[in-house]
Amino acid sequence: MAKIKGENVPVIELNRTEVSKFVGRNVSIKELEDRVPMLGTEWEENQGDDFTVEVFPNRPDLLSLEGFSRALAGFIGEKTGPVKYKVEKSNMKVSVDANTKDVREFIACAAVKNIEMSDEFIKSIMQIQEKLHITHGRNRSKVAIGIHNLDTISFPLTYKAVKRDFSFVPLETAKKMTADEILTKTPKGTEYAHILESGKLVPMIIDSTGQVLSFPPIINSEHTKITPDTKNLFVEITGTNKTAVDQALNMVVTAFFERNATLVETTVGKETFPNLKYRKMNLSLKYINKMLGTTLDIKESARLLEKMRFEATVENPQTLSVGVPPYRTDVMHAIDLVEDIAIAFGIENFDPEIPNVQGIGQEKELEIFSRKLRQAIIGFGCQETITFILSNKELLFEKMNSPESKVVEIENPLTVDYCVCRNTLAPSLMDVLSRNKHNKYPQKIFEVADCMVPEQNGGRTTRKCTVLIAESKADFSCIKSVAESIFHLFRLEAKLEKTSNPTFINGRAVNILLNGKTIGVMGEVHPEVLENFEIEMPVALIEFDAEELLPAGKQGNS
Amino acid sequence: MFCLDLKSLIKELHQNEKKLLICLKAGKKKDIEELETSSGLEKNSLMNAAMWLSSKKLAEIEEKINEYYSLKEEGEKYAKNGLPEKLMLNALAELKKAPLDELSKKANISNPNIALGWMKKNGWIEFEGKNISLTEKGLKDNNKTSDSEKLLKILEPGTVTGPDVAELKSTLDTLVKRGLVQVREKTTRTALLTKLGMEAISTGIEITEEINVLTPKIIKSKKWKTTSFRPYNTDAPAPPAMAGRRHYMYEALEFTRQIWLEMGFTEMTGPMADSSFWVFDSLYIPQDHPGREMQDTFFLKNPEKITNDNKELVKKVHETHEKGGNMESTGWNYKWSKSESEKPVLRTHTTSLSARTLASLSKKDLPAKFFSVGRVFRNETIDWSHLAEFYQVEGIVVDENASFKHLLGYLKRFFSKLGFPQARFRPAYFPYTEMSVEIEVFHPKKQKWLELGGAGIFRPEVVVPLLGEDIPVLAWGPGFERMVIDVYNIDSLKQLYSNDLEETRNAFIWPK
Questions:
Q1: Whole-model pTM?
Q2: Structural domain of residue B154, as residue ranges?
Q3: What is the span of the domain harbouring residue A128?
Q4: Chain B: residue whose CA lies nearest to A294
């Protein structure tokens, strides 16, 4: 699988001493370097005790010092099995106005009491917020997180949509600003304004005294700011997808729970948060061993799951009852549990094995034919090139002096060089010649490669063949020799028909016809075209549809 | 550089070289051209022989460029009749003062303006209204022979060389500029025996008839039976062969195709322009996945949408994305959009072909193994490590009895056949596989592990809608360019597609 580039893979910064504190024993850099990659995270680098780890997008729960350490402690066998969460009752309430539905529908909240504030903790709060925003929160559009000083807030709170002239003092500011001003004048406002639909009401979380907590997903208020003296926190999550919002709250509060903080429930509308129950799934031993190719027994399987911090109880000799931690967002199917068993078992501990499965290899006809064609052309002393299908109209048409024909065009090109898919191959190779003027002649080049022709339901891939001869003696007859040799070798009865084609010198170009159908063209390239490519050597070329040379029924690329 | 064993050196001498060597026997510097008669060689052969002797350090060749001067047509006329300005000066000396037309009549010259120009330049005349009068200098110079006149006299009989007229060089340059005299450059080469050359002579050089180039005539006449062949200096450089060959990148790709075929895999090909359905949705990639955004995927302007006729499959994929479909899966928990799945894109991976293949299989076709080597597209700015268009090597094994162990086995065998016997794996993540692994192979020359890309087992959410039931599908799709640049010691992916003919003509064959 090629990595999907869009996976905005975040990197977290950690410290060995801090991680050791949470794991419960001293871990060395060497051990980390060895174990981190096998846990399903990537070791980046370290400078002394500070190190960085890349976290895959399916495990946002690892995007904090606390969450990462919780997983590592299990993986290296220091603390296994589930974390038992306790949530204190409270009558903190948040009411949700119906008008938020069109603005930013979902909200989940919880309080975290008795924290031990420190520089490390503040750093950790900032990291977890930032990383979750980017990944799980899709740059705050799907989910946004606000963390406040609980002791500055008077309950009950209201989550509602307000007009854009509503004002409050935003974080790190001294004076009141309207929502509109925040969106147009502050850095955070301009960065995230696009998430809120323009012209509409904006979401706001307000306490019983009218004091604003947060203007999600943009900015918190100055009033509820966390300081070095803060003892109790309030966490609010808003977003456009309920599951994602609830999961984010769980990831944040369970991370703080690792710091021995007290979690306190909050009722939002009719629902009470956080919901830290372990989700129950059944897992059969047969499925585990079938998918992994192992012979694990039920107890060993349970032990491996516990290393990954799952709750695992043996239901019967064939079945495990598995509790999925509330912070795990990636477990959708039993197969996700099987993968965690594989990781706990150690990918390096599997014995690779090739099964004895019969199979008869079969190439595509077009590929077989293309190979034979290439072989024949190499025989003429030609060097193969490798060029891109992505191209541009200037190269395909303007420089070749040829009229524009239909091409598959890119909606969102990044450069002018690559904004269409070529429908003809020779221009790519003319470009190769123009880049090789400093090299020895003769330059005989060819390629058998794909082009694309627009069609109603997509672009059809077609295989073309082109040969270019550039040298002082290059003329029509040299390229005709090549063409006739190809026709002879492949037993084709091709006909040549004089044509006037502005790419070529008038009177020195022909269409190639096979069974009455034009399949290609060849000739002596017009000096004006040579000039367009800044080539100072005569060039003769041929281009034809390679697919057309295949017997009917064997054509087609799909 | 060349063989210094004197005897074999002499043996390998061409007859012409031998002849020239003997001509130089006297030990004096000789003009090579003058040796034409004494050596009996033509000019070209003579020069060739001299160059070879020089490269073999038997003779020293000295090159000298000589300039030869001769009169052009106008110069010849002036040499005979006198320079026009001088003729006019003579006339003026007689008339003392006169207008131009009278003066030119008296001097009897056809082009008075040239004469007038030079007279003024030489400071011989002054203008008094229409009249021209003589200066003191003019009067004085009238009786003197000027340098120009002297030169014309020297040149009149024929060609002279540079040194002959060295004293009059500046005047000569003026006459050249005036177009009266032409210059020709000629290189003369003189040859002198070196110490080694002397030694060769004293060792004795025999000129016998030898065969140089074997010709059809010699073969037919059987002359080769009676005449010996001149041995060649086999260390002499030969011109490079301009052989036609495959591009080394294609060569490497062909090699991987061959490996999959050997391992019994069937080739898959398919559209490069495809619907988002086949590239993303069928692979359980959620519609809000960052990889589907504009900055990562090339979307197409035309056609507007690519629809899927298999309505049943679309429904299954739809349900699986939203709620996990008919398997025990939570799904992605969002609202799936059909129109989003119809957006046309350039495939970002050939895994779209695996999806299409799975959809076309039925249970009786199993077990089955497929591969593809194809181009994929990413909307990226091209730099040393990123290309907008590159290759992916895709493979799937669809087998009721396949497992994770087998996945590792197939990959290990493939890379071993490719020339990397050591392969290792670690956990990775792809939205459509579970388990997912990253493949690394050990590069024996560089002594380092190379990251080659990913592999895994397709998630049930991918397989069930496409194939109808949950059968293990092992899958991999490592990129290829990274490995090729490492093997060829190239530092940029871009260079692979740069098509520098000097590089591609000389790239070595894939090492395995």
A1: 0.81
A2: 71-180
A3: 87-273
A4: B405
